[in-house]
Write a structure and sequence with these properties.
Layout (H helix, E strand, L loop, with lengths): L4 E2 L2 E2 L1 E5 L11 H15 L3 E7 L12 E11 L2 E13 L2 E7 L1 H4 L6 E2 L2 E2 L3 H18 L6 E5 L6 H9 L4 E6 L7 E3 L2 H4 L13 E2 L2 E3 H8 L2 E4 L2 H6 L3 H4 L3 H7 L3 E3 L27 H13 L11 E8 L5 H12 L4 E8 L1 H13 L4 E5 L3 H10 L2 E4 L9 H7 L4 E4 L2 H6 L12 E3 L4 H15 L2 H13 L5 H17 L5
This protein binds adenosine-5'-diphosphate (ADP) and alpha-D-glucopyranose.
The site of adenosine-5'-diphosphate has 18 residues, from helix 1, strand 17, strand 18 and helix 13.
Length: about 500
C-alpha cells in the first residue's frame, strides 16, 4: 500500500462532480462521489469535493453553512456571483457546494421531464469554471483535480490553462452514453479558445463535447470497470469515440467501483423489515413478506419466486429487451416487481403491462430509496438486463443481500457476476446476446436453481460473502494519482 503522501506530505485531492450523496442523487455516480472521497480520506489523503447546490438540498438537515466567500465568475458575457456553502458529508471530507439559484434551482438535476435543460452547457460550464476559481480562492492547493463525467469535463483543460503542470487531473468516465454535446457556438461562450475545437481536441462531429474535453486533456482517464474499459475501445460500445479510447493507450484504466456497505448490508440495514446475514438468513423471509405487502401482493405463495428490478428507466438498462420478453416472462411461475423512473415511454409501458397482468407484475414509478433497499432484500432474484453497463451498483448490492442477480454479461455486470451454470463458484446468472430468448433462458436457469434450495443457498452464500468494499478501489485511485504525480503526462 502506498500511503496517501506526496513529497513527504499528505496528498491533496479535489473531486468535481454534479451529484453526490447525501445531498442529491439520480444514479450510481452520487454513491461513488460520496464513498470514494470518504475512503480516500480514511487512507490519509486530504479530500474535498465541489458540487452544485441544487434546489432540493435541505441545508438545515445536512448542516450546511454559508461561507463568507462569494466567487465572481465571468461566463457567457455575464459576471456570475456564486455563493459558497460548506458541509461534511463524511469524516475528513470537505464539501463545497456552489449556489447559483438561476442555474441550479430546478426540480430535475439535468432534465425537466424527458427534456434536457436547454442551458446545460452554461450550468455545467459554470460548475467547472467556478470549481477552478474556488480552488484558488479557498487555497485548496490540490495535487490532483479529479473530475467525474461530462458535467465536470472542462476541469482538466481549465486546470492546465490555469495551473500548468502544478496540478494534475484525472477524469473518470462513469457513462459514455452521456457526452454533453452542444453546438459549436458554445465554445466562446464557455470561455474556451477555438484551439480546443479540433478532432484531436473536444470536437465531436461538428459539435463541442464536454466528455471528449475531459478525455483528451486529463492526465489519466479511468472508467468504472475493467470490462467497460475494454469495451469502449471497440466500435460496438465506443459510440464513435473508440479511436480516442484506443489513443489513450495505458492512460485509460478500469477500476471497478466499490459498494458502500455502511448503507448496503443486510446485517445492519435499518431500512429493512428484518436484518439477516449469510450465517442466518431467516430475516430474509420477513423482508420478502414486507416487499410483497408494499406492492399489494400479499397473496403470492412462498413457492413463487419474486424477481426484482431497481433502475433508471432508460434505454441503457435494457428495457426494450425486457419488454420484448415480458409476455413470456410473465407466463412463467414468478412475479416481477420493478421500481424506477425515467423515460415516459418505459414508465407508461410498465403501467400498461401491470394493468394486463396485475398478479404477475407490479411497478412503482418513483425514486424511493427505502423501497430500493426493500427490493434488494425481499426479492429472490434481481434482474439487470442492461444494453451496456459501465459498472452497475445494484447487482453488487443484490449479491450482498443474498438476491442472486440475473444480468446481461456486459461491462461491470460481467466483472462482478459469474454464471452458476458455467462456474463452480457462480454467484448469479448471465447471458450474452441482447435477445429476448437469451434473457428468458437465463431467467429460466435462475428459476431452476431457485427451485433447488441447496443449490440456490450455495449461490446466495457465495454472493453474500464476496467483498466489493471501497478500500481496495480507493487505494487503486491513490496509486494512480501517485503514479501520475511521479510520471506526469508523458505516457500519452
Ligand atoms: P446508474 O448509475 O446507471 O443508474 P447503478 O447501478 O450504478 O446505475 O446505480 C444506481 C443507483 O441508484 C443505486 O444506488 C440504486 O439503488 C439507485 N436507484 C436507481 N433508481 C432508483 C429509484 N427509482 N429509487 C431509488 N433508488 C434508485
Ligand atoms: C453510471 C453507470 C453505472 C455506474 C455508475 C457509477 O451511472 O451507468 O454503471 O455504476 O455510473 O460509476
Amino acid at each position: 500500500m502506498i500511503a496517501a503522501t506526496i513529497r513527504g506530505r499528505v496528498m491533496r485531492v479535489v473531486h468535481v462532480v454534479s451529484e453526490v450523496l447525501p445531498y442529491c442523487k439520480t444514479g450510481g455516480l452520487a454513491d461513488v462521489a460520496f464513498a470514494l472521497p470518504r475512503e480516500q480520506a480514511a487512507r490519509g489523503a486530504q479530500v474535498a469535493l465541489i458540487a452544485p447546490l441544487y434546489a432540493g438540498v435541505d441545508r438545515a438537515r445536512h448542516g450546511l453553512r454559508r461561507e463568507p466567500l462569494t466567487l465572481s465568475v465571468p461566463l457567457a458575457g455575464r459576471q456570475w456571483q456564486v455563493g459558497v456553502w460548506r458541509g461534511q458529508p463524511a469524516a475528513g471530507v470537505d464539501a463545497w457546494l456552489l449556489e447559483v439559484p438561476e442555474l441550479f434551482d430546478r426540480p430535475g438535476l439535468y432534465q425537466d421531464g424527458d427534456r434536457d435543460h436547454p442551458d446545460n452547457s452554461l450550468r455545467f460550464g459554470l460548475l467547472c469554471h467556478a470549481a477552478l476559481e474556488l480552488v484558488v480562492r479557498a487555497r485548496l492547493k490540490p495535487d490532483v483535480l479529479h473530475a467525474h463525467d461530462w458535467q465536470a469535463g472542462l476541469v482538466p483543460f481549465l486546470a492546465r490553462e490555469r495551473f500548468g503542470g502544478l496540478v494534475e487531473s484525472v477524469f473518470t468516465l462513469h457513462n459514455l452514453g452521456y457526452q454533453g454535446l452542444f453546438p459549436a457556438e458554445v465554445v466562446p461562450q464557455l470561455g474556451l479558445p477555438w484551439s480546443v475545437f479540433t478532432p484531436e481536441g473536444a470536437e465531436y462531429w461538428g459539435q463541442f463535447s464536454f466528455l471528449k474535453a475531459g478525455l483528451v486533456f486529463a492526465g489519466r482517464v479511468t472508467t468504472v470497470s475493467r470490462r467497460y474499459a475494454q469495451e469502449i475501445r471497440t466500435p460496438e460500445h465506443g459510440l464513435g469515440l473508440e479511436g480516442v479510447m484506443q489513443a489513450l493507450g495505458p492512460r485509460l484504466v478500469g477500476i471497478l467501483n466499490g459498494a458502500d456497505y455502511s448503507e448496503w448490508d443486510p446485517r445492519t440495514d435499518p431500512l429493512l423489515a428484518a436484518r439477516y446475514s449469510p450465517q442466518d438468513l431467516s430475516g430474509k423471509a420477513a423482508c420478502r413478506a414486507h416487499l410483497l405487502r408494499e406492492f399489494g401482493l400479499e397473496g403470492v405463495p412462498p413457492g413463487r419466486p419474486v424477481l426484482g428490478v431497481v433502475s433508471r428507466f432508460v434505454d441503457q438498462k435494457g428495457f426494450d429487451l425486457l419488454f420484448q420478453a415480458l409476455d413470456e416472462l410473465l407466463a412463467l411461475d414468478l412475479v416481477l416487481v420493478a421500481l424506477g423512473k425515467g423515460d415516459r415511454a418505459y414508465e407508461q409501458g410498465f403501467l400498461a403491462r401491470q394493468q394486463a397482468h396485475p398478479d404477475r407484475l407490479r411497478v412503482r414509478v418513483a425514486y424511493d430509496n427505502p423501497l430500493a433497499h426493500a427490493i434488494e432484500a425481499g426479492a429472490d432474484l434481481f434482474l439487470m438486463p442492461s444494453r451496456y453497463e459501465p459498472c452497475g451498483l445494484n447487482q453488487i448490492y443484490s449479491l450482498r443481500y443474498g438476491t442472486p442477480p440475473v444480468v446481461r454479461a456486459t461491462g461491470g455486470l460481467d466483472d462482478t457476476v459469474r454464471d452458476a451454470d458455467r462456474h463452480a463458484d457462480g454467484n448469479g446468472f448471465s447471458f450474452a446476446a441482447y435477445q429476448p430468448r437469451a434473457l428468458l433462458d437465463a431467467v429460466g436457469r435462475a428459476l431452476a436453481a431457485w427451485a433447488a434450495p441447496e443449490r440456490y443457498r450455495a449461490i446466495q452464500a457465495r454472493g453474500m460473502l464476496e467483498d466489493f468494499s471501497w478500500p481496495a478501489p480507493a487505494q487503486k485511485y491513490l496509486d494512480l494519482y501517485d503514479e501520475l504525480l511521479q510520471n506526469g503526462i508523458p505516457l500519452r
